[in-house]
Amino acid sequence: MIQYVFRGPTYRPFPYELSLAVRELSALTGREAACKGGVLTVSVRKPLPVGLLRRLAFTSWVDAPCGAVPTDTHLLEQSAIHVRNGNGGRPGNNGWSSRKESNYLTHGLHRYKGKFYPQLCRSLINIAGIEGGDLVFDPFMGSGTTLMECAISGIASVGFDLNPLAHLIASAKVELIRTPTRSLLSALERFEIDLIKECRGVGLSWRGMGSPEPDGRRSFSSVTLATECGLPEAAEEIRRWFPAAVCQKLVAVLRALKGVQGPAFRKLVQVCLSDQIRSVSQQDPRDLRIRRRAQEIEDAPLLALLSDKLLKELEKLKAGIEVLGGPVKVDVASPELRDARSLDPREHPILSRRPVDTVVTSPPYANALPYIDTDRLSLLVLGLLSTHARNRLQKQIIGNREIHDRERLVLEAELEGPSGIRTFPATVASQVRQSLRENRRHPVGFRRRNVPALLYQYFRDMRTVMARLHGVVRPGGNAFVVVGDSTTKLGNGEELCVRTSDHLAVLAEQVGWRAVDKLSITVTVEDLAHVKNAITDNSILILKRDHR
């Protein structure tokens, strides 16, 4: 027998991450792994392929008969850390860093409010036993974590999302890792020249990276920026949220962007610009909601922030691509602006030709975040959505918190009627109805009054998605769903824990899935306002589509 020793991450992993590491090894090697002191061992009859060893997510090094084999994840993490530390993507004098890093390659290109980090996603792909030639689907792709990790491993993937900004971020991520970094760096140089020219055109004296950030004109018109965004009707909204001096700089950037030729670099600039919007607007950067700063700003160093962001991201990308041996080559990495509730494989160019082997996703939480509204200023500046279209889309997103009284009354009637009883298993319906009863017995504000109808709508939509997924996954395939429970206050002041993970498992079984396991995980939170309301306890639901 040949023994392999698998060393854990250089950082201190969570217990659930060690548990996932054991499952990864069992799935990829077909042998049970022994764990002692965070070190895993596996004995096999035949040598394991080096490519398989490098795929592991929660392992840093493998002691193999051929020598020590570092995993791709470990090397990618280290490359990002050392770029940030100024070492050019290579270990410094202190060697390997002992901190956790999830923003390698194009991960971290744009801050996105989700808890689905790359190492977790990669481990689930490994546990599913996915190989080249298989197809992974993410119906709630968000910023594209699943598609990125699939592409790195040479696995085909398709992702859906209704948020235009999420679609842009995901598209940028997967296109950039497939593009030679030399061409991207050349595009950056040309963009810098065009940006200096456009700055002079609007009256700014900026001379490029490393030069002092010029003060913008306080009298610059928001109408000009609204026109550049392609949304002239948004001039008043822009005036309320952006200082005139920042509007002047945004106009220069958007005009320079028009001269960019390559689609990958164009998306890089758009995404990096979006990532700076909170910092240069009157929106409180620490608040997920669209709220104003306590102290308004008159100007902000947008040009310096953008230039620094572009250069750092390309350095990090270059270091990661060197780890992988060149730009990523994968036949399908398809982020799409679609609604998973209306998925019809017969009308899809990829899903109509091949079944999905596994689903890896992290759906929205129930009634937790204003997913569209929180990025409204980015959607505005990039011209992705008008105010009217944004408000309409916000109501369509699964897990949204916006509803009119007429819609609320219709949903409540459906919940209490025979349709609601047929749609939901008793365990799901009883908890939603409990919140409705308590809210009717006590005077509550409109937010709390809307909660029962919104919960009903959320679980009804998720049941539809589960049914759609069951129709596209091959017999014997599976789904990994990362989701967290949430809490809400009843009319009597008591807190109600919405058992989202349990309810989704029951709804999945109702439409044909078999729930085979549920793993508890813990995620960290950012330093943001309302962090006390953040959901840190999550679960991984593992579902199976049986052969029958």
| Oligomerization category of the chains in this entry | single chain
Computed over alpha carbons, the radius of gyration is: 24 Å
Low-confidence stretches: 525-534
Strand element count: 14
Find the structural class using helix and strand composition: alpha/beta
Biggest β-sheet strands, sense, barrel: 7 strands, mixed
Strand order of the largest sheet: 8-7-6-9-10-14-13
Number of helices: 19
Overall morphology: globular
Helical percent range? 40-55%
Distance between the termini: 38 Å
Give a description of the structure.
With 548 residues, this protein is α/β, with parallel strands linked by helices. Among the domains are: 72 residues, VC0802-like (2-Layer Sandwich), CATH 3.30.2130.30; 140 residues, no CATH class. 44% of the residues lie in helices and 15% in strands. The strands form three sheets. Strands 8-7-6-9-10-14-13 form a seven-stranded mixed β-sheet, sandwiched between helices. It has a five-stranded antiparallel β-sheet with strand order 2-3-1-4-5. It has a two-stranded antiparallel sheet with strand order 11-12. A hairpin with a 5-residue loop joins strand 11 and strand 12. It is globular, with a radius of gyration of 24 Å. 45% of the residues are buried.
